[in-house]
Amino acid sequence: MTEQKTALLICTAGITTGLLVKNVQNAADERGLDIHVYSAPAIIAEQAIQSQAIDALMIGPQSKYEIARLKDFLTYKAVPYKLISRENYEILDGEAVLEEIIALIGK
Fold this sequence. Notes:
Blueprint lengths: L4 E7 L3 H17 L3 E7 L3 H7 L4 E4 L6 H11 L4 E3 L2 H5 L3 H12 L2
Helix pairs in contact: 1-5
């Protein structure tokens, strides 16, 4: 990756993903990867997708219903997305979620 990539993590309120973001960003920084990771409540994801360059969207498992709501925007903007595995989400495994982001960005 030569230019900075951006990954957005969303969940219902943005609180759990806010905690997870720190772990993912730390894992990216430790590897020297130029990835900016941030979180937001699912309700503003549509706005973020429309107004920002997002290279990967990671969705909290409890917000999987958001995929149907956001699918048209994600397809139009060609934003790859994935549901965060429940296991990684529950233990706030930043390294594992970073691997999922890298796999998405690499597509």
